[in-house]
Predict the structure.
Amino acid sequence: MARITKEERKNGIISAALKLFSEKGFYITTIPDIAEKVGMSVGNFYNYFTSKDVLAKELVMYISEYLGKSIREINEKEISTDKKIYEIVSMYFDMANEKPEMIEYFLRVYLSNREVFGDGCEGMLCVSPFVTEMMLFFNDGVECGELHDQDFFSAFGLFMGYLGGMVFLFGEKILPEPLEWYKESISQNIYNALKTR
Amino acid sequence: MHSKQDKPHLLWFQGVTCNGNTHSFLNLTNLEHLLNKFEILHHPALASLKSFDTITQCQENCDIFIFEGTYDPLLKRNDIEVSKIVQHYAKSAKYIIGLGSCASFGGMFKASAPQRNSGLIFNEDVKEGPLEKYSNKVINISGCPIHPEWLEYVLLMIASHKEILVDELHRPRELYSNLAHHGCTRNEYFEWKVDADNFGEKEGCLYYTQGCRAPMTHASCNKILWNEVSSKTRVGTPCFGCTEPDFPRKNLFSTKTNMSIPVDVPLGVSKRSYLTLAGIAKTFHIKRLEGKLIDYKTTN
């Protein structure tokens, strides 16, 4: 049997921690809980992350890099802006379906426990890859004349707030239909709100 | 020491111009010292060997032909077509100097007849000017106006028989390889992404909202200072990018953005890299850079 590399072991911790934090909450989850879930000793855990706060910040960066990489792939496609919007919405909802712990962590832990992320994860520090790609998406949309020029955060809030809200409703089991069902209409709504007038 | 016979003959001739480069040149500290190295065949504002009449009759030849202003093929001076005069002197000259952005690329006065006016060898950045066939002896000194020391550098290099290396727009690389951003006293504000609140203030970077083109403009303005003491950005005015072929742009005092994101980012930097760095830098608040420097106390 192949030996598990340190990187794979680290990813295992990230995956287990994401699940536990998003299911049980950040404060209730302990390092022994995480260590137990990945099948390692608490002592060994500290070889990978020096504290729960450090792990919490690394998780945000991990999600941000995952989102950034996915949006970058969409940004680099030679497709119209409305199609890019659909692909971003689709990617985000698929992620909420397939890796709900990632979005849950972002919404329920990162955005709700600012005291944990105030030092060393403030502003753009931990979310730069994701926000940068959204900036480029908006920039390209205006440059090609398909989106109207406005303040970045007004547009960003409309786009990501909408998606976050839908995933929250989905997580609360309030949505009558699966997320997939909403992709088309939500993409259209976002495009209609942002398109050139 | 040069004898009168050895001195290169210099002719300064004007197309469509505001005389800005002539005026700027007169501010050169070492003007007399420089002029002693040349025979001034004709200059619009200096004592000259030949009259304007004689020059326009195309009865002379020169070693250095300086052309100031935009080239307009229909323009006449002294009732003689400038196109004829320019071709005559360009043919015999060893060096042709396109002086200022108008002579280099069309510049400000291209706007009066954009379809026909141009620089000597460039129409903006397209090589299709009337002296294209003499390209190998053309040196463009762009700027609106030129810094007098830029012309001094070129003339001294010529007088010393030294080679002047030029960039793809025929500008001397020694003067135009760096950016107007280099040497800007506001660089710390640029690094930490702190905007200037108003024009004329010492604090803040002018790039984010006030239209500063210094990070995208090849010029020595913050290295070879104006009047030996200052520059646009040092007194709180944005760089207008006046040494580049796309000058004059519109809305010189505002930064063009797409959804708050600068359309143009520093030269040679990808927008993705710039936005990543800018976003992170903006996260931090440097108290010293947020108010008037003179009011900042280090002992709070």
Notes: Chain A touches chain B at residues 122-125, 128-129, 131-133, 135-136, 138-139, 141-143, 147, 149-153, 155 (CB under 8 Å). Chain A has one domain: 52-194. Residues 52-75 of chain A form the longest helix (24 residues). The radius of gyration of chain A is 18 Å.
